[in-house]
Design brief:
24% strand; alpha/beta; eight-stranded parallel β-sheet; 2,3-diaminopropionate biosynthesis protein SbnB; ODC_N; globular; 16 strands; eight-stranded mixed β-sheet; 322 residues
């Protein structure tokens, strides 16, 4: 069995075009119902903000694989100089169940999260002019926020006009890629970050929603942290996309609250499979698009499988004896 940690993942590298292809291929398997993914259970004890989540899945297609991600999210860690999230992913051979690889790092989870956002971003961009410039706003600049900046930098390239960052705990600009640093500025408030953003990304650990202003016309709202928008904001969203309705409409997410208070139904939304496999955003040039991803285990297994294959090819990692 192969063991990979954060250093091994960094050695292999993060290549966003490859990773968005991995997510698109997994979405095709989802669309073709060549997958298995039970609703993930949340283990809670003590402080109700904390949770450890089990995410088992099988994803078919050209490189079928099974496995599970076990991820702990303790938001208060950030105030103790600890990472908020810790995870271990185990990959199993699909037709025998034999464990193939253990990936011991939350980095893989962050990569998956940003790669899924990247797939939606690319579909959004397909409806925009090739020379259009974009202002990007990111609220929350921890590991997930930094991962999203890396992703949008790679996908947008010279189409980035500027990037506004805001974090309630401050922004460390030394973590910003020098290649885009001249386009990056720190906003004084989330409102400043939000009010001019063509592409707005929430990467916070917010326990309660606060976004209550109309979004920029024709913008993309990547609601990654899922607990930032007040329920009334659904009125400003022309298209609401989810990864999986049953997963995201629970656990006090914005989608669940919009469902309970504003009457948002599954039939009012598109799934990521609709967007990727049926091109459901085609022609959506004027409306505001909001994406709400709870996080699907099939994507974790697919991304983990990608790094496992890369590790074998490059002779990276540690072989653990039975």
């Amino acid at each position: 069995m192969l063991y990979l940690n954060a250093d091994h993942i960094r050695e292999i590298g993060i290549h966003w075009e490859e990773l968005t292809d991995v997510i698109s291929n997994a979405t095709t398997a989802l669309h073709q119902e060549d997958y298995a993914q039970p609703i993930k259970p949340y283990l809670r004890y003590g402080d109700p903000k904390n949770r450890i989540i089990a995410m088992p899945a099988y994803v078919g297609g050209q490189s079928p694989l099974a496995g599970i991600k076990w991820i702990a999210s303790f938001p208060g860690n950030i105030y103790q100089n600890k990472l908020r999230a810790h995870s271990v992913t185990i990959l199993n051979e699909h037709d025998s169940g034999i464990p193939l690889c253990v990936i011991n790092t939350a980095t893989i989870s962050g990569i998956r999260t940003a790669a899924v956002s990247g797939v939606i971003l690319k579909k959004y961009l397909a409806n925009r002019k090739d020379d259009q410039q974009f202002t990007v706003g990111i609220i929350g600049f921890g590991p997930i926020g930094r991962m999203h900046l890396s992703m949008v930098t790679a996908i947008l390239g010279d189409r980035i006009d500027r990037v506004l960052l805001y974090d309630i705990n401050g922004v460390d600009l030394t973590t910003v890629d020098p290649a885009v640093k001249d386009k990056v500025a720190v906003a004084n408030s989330w409102q400043e970050c939000y009010s001019t953003a063509d592409i707005f990304i929430t990467c916070t650990v917010s326990a309660a929603p606060y976004v209550d202003l109309p979004p920029v016309k024709s913008s993309l709202q990547l609601n990654v942290s899922l607990r930032d928008y007040k329920v009334e904001m659904v009125r400003h969203m022309d298209v609401v996309v989810v990864d999986d309705w049953e997963e995201v409409c629970r656990q006090n997410t914005d989608i669940e609250n919009m469902h309970k208070v504003m009457g948002l139904e599954k039939t009012d939304t598109l799934s990521i499979a609709d967007v990727v496999c049926n091109d459901a955003l085609k022609g959506q040039k004027e409306g505001v698009v909001m994406f709400n991803p709870m996080g699907m285990a099939i994507y974790d297994i697919a991304v983990g499988g990608h790094y496992y294959q890369q590790a074998l090819h490059r002779n990276v990692g540690v072989v653990v004896p039975d």
